[in-house]
Every structure is written in structure tokens, then in C-alpha cells.
Amino acid sequence: MQQEVVLAMLAKEPAYGYALRARLSAALGPLGDAMNAGQIYVTLTRLEKAGLVASEEATSTEGPARKVYGLTSAGQERVGAWLAEVSWPRPDLAEFHLKLVAAAAAGLADPLAIVDQQRRELLRRLRDAQRAAMAEPDRSDAALLLEGIVLRLQADLRWLEACERNWTERRGNL
Amino acid sequence: MSDTADTPVLRTRGLRKQYGKGEVLVRAVAGVDLDVASGETVAVMGPSGCGKSTLLHVLGGLDRPSEGEVWLDGRRIDRLGEKALARMRREAVGFVFQGFHLMDELTAVENVELSALLAGNSPRAARRRATELLERVGLADRAGFLPAALSGGQRQRVAIARALCNEPRVVLADEPTGNLDSAATLDVLRLFESLHEAGHTLVIVTHDDRIAATADRLISMRDGAFVDETRLAGGTSGKLGALAGLEG
């Protein structure tokens, strides 16, 4: 599990480990099944060592004492930087998706602004790939590879359109 | 009229266009300031109904704004009379539409030369110009074909040749690849690219990412207003390898 994702899920408010896991499961649906609970605790421990997360024992009348995890100011900074960074050319759909979810939940950034930023980057690459494709003679080997790049970029751009629609509607419903 | 490089070919200030009134008032264009420089390709993207087609119509004098100014080549056009406006459209603007808008009963070359004839050129000069343009769009051998005998991509290329017939100051295109398959889209992209290289000024409204990506500048439009603007030129060369799984 990427550390930044765990951090971002804490941006809205501190949470118990299991609540954190529930937040991720809600955002990822069946894709979240691959995560195991242990992973999250290992990541939290690392983050705490790095000074990005601080924990507190919550007193409880029944059952064992549980830790509540929250962001330190360094952690908050890291989340802000992660939201602003564009992750292409290694697109990680889940990471980008969680970025939008976390940004909206914590009110840290406008999901639509993140979508716009990503779109700009993808369109620049599409422009380059297309220019390279147009410069190739028809049916050259290189043209075929470039066509593959163009089609992938188009697929990503279509998904961004879906993200835009979805987050526009949600914002309207707030 | 001014022809200096720093006068924008197209300029709008406080442009608004609305339809209806009261509860059914639609603000299709809600305050747009735009400058398009000579030789620039600008793409306007946005969801259906965001006002981009209306904007294009107002830019080309097909429709009048409710408020604001439109300048073409240093000349204010939103207050021109009907006759002067029609003349301006014929001589200074080339239009390309999603549905091609060719005359079904005219051949390709006749469709192209028609606008030259309407602008007062001799039949001989008009035919020469049309033949030249069809060659340029790669359709010299289809000059005598009716639109019905041409593919979608070929029809759009005829429409682009027609748009260029009177050497317009600006070409305005409304979803030019909207009715085309992938191969025909690539032909049209190549053609727009060559127009760009030849120094033409282009404004394209579209939701096709591929054609938007050919622009120098990309404007996002939502609810009648510009919400984002990006310069695409001078981007990422060298990173394409990473997109194909080649590192470094």
C-alpha cells in the first residue's frame, strides 16, 4: 500500500486503523479486497516512525485500548504535495482515484482542478504521440506502436471525462 | 484593417449570448474574452451544451452576441449590417462543420469553387483555385465525384478545401471529426496540421481529444465560460518511450 494513500485517507480526520481500512474499502470496492489489514498497520507504523503520523491511545471502557492515528503537520504537507503531483507516465488508476476521493473528503483540493491538471498533462503527451505518428509513413512498425500509445492516452482521457462528470455532479449535490 | 502581427485575428471582450428569457433564460456564452493570434491553432473543449458551438457561431458572424464585442482582424463585426456581415463571412472566415454541409447535387470541385464564385471570381479562376485545393487535400482524383460517392473523411476534406477557397483570415471548425472513424480522423488531423504549418489561423471546438491535442492552446469551457487554459506546444518530447514501456 502506498504510504501517501494511507496518509491522504487520514487528511479528513484522525481515525482508528480499522476505520481507515473501511474508508479505503468504500473508495475501492471489490478492488480493495486485495489489501490485507496487516499492510495498513505496517504502513502506519512506518509513517509514524517517519514523523508523518502521530498516534494516541484512546481509552475505552471495554475491549483493548486502540490507537487513533492522525496527521502531523509534516504529514499534511506530504499529502498536499501528493495531491498536486502528476503521476504520468506511470498511470496508477487507483492512486489517482484515491487522490480525488481524499481531496474531496478532506476539502484539501478541488477534484475538478486535479482532473484538469491531469488532462493537460495527458493532452500534451497525446499531442507528442500524435505528431510522431503523423510523421511516420502509413503502416510502418513505429506507426503501429505510436497508435497504441495514442489509443491508451485516449482511454485515459475518456476516464478523466467520467471523473469530471462524477465529481461535478457530487459537487452540485453538496 | 490592420495586418500587423500583434493585432489578434480574432478578439472578443465581454461576449455574452443568451436565448429565451425569464425562467427559460439560457446563458450559452456567459462573458468570454478571447484573443487568437495570427497563425495560432486554438481548441475549445467542453461537455455538450457548454456553449462552445454558440461561441463559434458568434465568432464567425453566423449569430450576433447579446452583449460584448467581436473583432476580426482589427475590425469590429458585431455591429455590422446584414449585408456587410455576410460579405465578411464569405471573404474572411472559413467554416467546417461536423455534418460537412456540402451541396449534394454538386460535385466535389463544384462545391469548392462555389464560394469563390460567390465572392466574385471568374469561373475560370474559381475552377483553378478549387482544383488546386482539392489537390492539396489529396482528392485531385475525386474532383468530379458527388458527395454521395465519397467517404465521410473525403467529404470533410472537400469541406476543408471549400473553407480555404477565399483565403480566409480564420478557419472555424465545429466538431470536424465528430462523424469520422479513426482512420479518417487521422487524415483530417494531418490536414489541419498542414494548415497550421502553412500559417493558417484555426479555432476548433470539439470534444475529440485527438483533434484538441493538435492545438497550440487549449481552452476548457463549462457553463458558457472559460475555466481553464493550457499551452500544449513545447511539451514532453522524449517521454514517449516511457508511455510504451521503454524506460529512460
TrEMBL record, chain A:
Which SUPFAM superfamilies does the annotation name? Winged helix' DNA-binding domain
Top-level taxon: Bacteria
Show the InterPro entries listed in the entry: Metal_resp_DNA-bind_regulator, Tscrpt_reg_PadR_N, WH-like_DNA-bd_sf, WH_DNA-bd_sf
The Transcription regulator PadR N-terminal domain is annotated at 6-79
Q: What is this protein called?
A: PadR family transcriptional regulator
